[in-house]
Amino acid sequence: MGCFMAMGASDVIELVEAALAADYTRVRRLAGKIATALSEGEDKDAAKKLRSLIRRSGVPLQASGFVESLPVDSKSRMPLVEEQPWPTSPLFLDENTISVFHCFIEDAKNVDILVENGLSTRLSMLLSGAPGTGKSLLAGHIAKQLGKPLYVVRLDSVISSLLGDTAKNVRRVFEFVPSREAVLFLDEMDAVAKLRDDSQELGELKRVVNTVIQGLDSLDDHAIVIGATNHSQLLDPAIWRRFPYKVEMNVPNAQMRADMWCHFLFKDEDEAKASDVLAAVSKGLTGADIEAIAGAARRRSVLAQRELDVGGIAWAALHSSEGRPQLPPVETLTSGQKIELARRLCGSLALSQADAARVIGVTRQAVRKYLMEGGDGD
Ligand SMILES: Nc1ncnc2c1ncn2[C@@H]1O[C@H](COP(=O)(O)OP(=O)(O)O)[C@@H](O)[C@H]1O
Ligand SMILES: [Mg+2]
């Protein structure tokens, strides 16, 4: 119990206070602090358990005591807004995105000065990009940086309701949110645009678009809104214009891929060389793809009680990046697969034989032999 002493009674008091006030953001922050104290003491297990509790899915706002005002879909009674925890994993961005991100945080933190000087702008940022490129993660990091709870509205769930109720749902969301100091994250915004495909619902689409616009316009200078869409071209231009900060979330570049492999695979231990090679074979993969392959490889390694099989990871990454998604195989690579991998690494990917050997987990001589056995090479 020594660690509890280190933590201090004031933390416990503050925790109880936050819990009773249904302030889940503060509860999570304090719990994080307690977890750190526990792991600094000797109770690593308890720290782990506590951290996984904190990470657990969003608290439906219903549970946070706002039942009276909680917007729900009138047919399904499903909540239209959910609070989600701040992310605990790092975000890797390209330089361009980092600069917009910093600019946005800076403006949001200093909104009062900007308003005083007549320089305020809507604090609205639109993220567009393929699934798995980190849009939700970025929204979470913005909330975390600003110290505000993250309220997520999935527009597709707002829409899949009785015809005619959608606009009502959108209005409910915007009526509910400005009263709280939060970051409002409008996820899956193309759901609105997709209504267009159904000509019967054209009238409904217009009504919904107008309601979203009215909602955005009704927010005051301090409101922080993040929108996410897979295709910004699908969005109504009038909605698009209402987001002065825009970020295109591309698939990660080579440096970001290396950082991701390093984080997801090697837990940030210095494995620079392997990460660089894996970055080279994973061109075109998203952060979510890399996380999935890395996670699968680590499971294989733990269950088979063997070292990480970097060759199997390279194999999976290479095929996935060519549009044939694969996870690392359960068994280590066959010699046929090793030969193919060696030829690919040293051929089109132009890696050195030494790097190829390291990745496949064989000697350089073996790689040279593979290349010769492989025929005339390419
Ligand atoms: N740029 C990135 N940096 C770090 N992790 C990422 C990145 N992109 C994706 N990921 C990983 O993939 C997961 C899913 O990404 P997510 O934010 O849900 O993507 P999106 O919302 O664009 O579909 C994240 O939780 C994270 O683990
Ligand atoms: Mg998302």
Automatic annotation (TrEMBL):
SMART domains from the UniProt entry: AAA
Keyword line: ATP-binding, Nucleotide-binding
GO molecular function: ATP binding; ATP hydrolysis activity
Name by which UniProt lists this protein: ATPase family associated with various cellular activities (AAA)
Family as reported in the entry's similarity comment: Belongs to the AAA ATPase family.
Origin species: Magnetospirillum fulvum (Rhodospirillum fulvum)
InterPro entries cross-referenced by the UniProt entry: 26S_Proteasome_ATPase, AAA+_ATPase, ATPase_AAA_core, P-loop_NTPase
Gene3D superfamilies (UniProt xref): P-loop containing nucleotide triphosphate hydrolases
Location of the AAA+ ATPase domain: 121-253
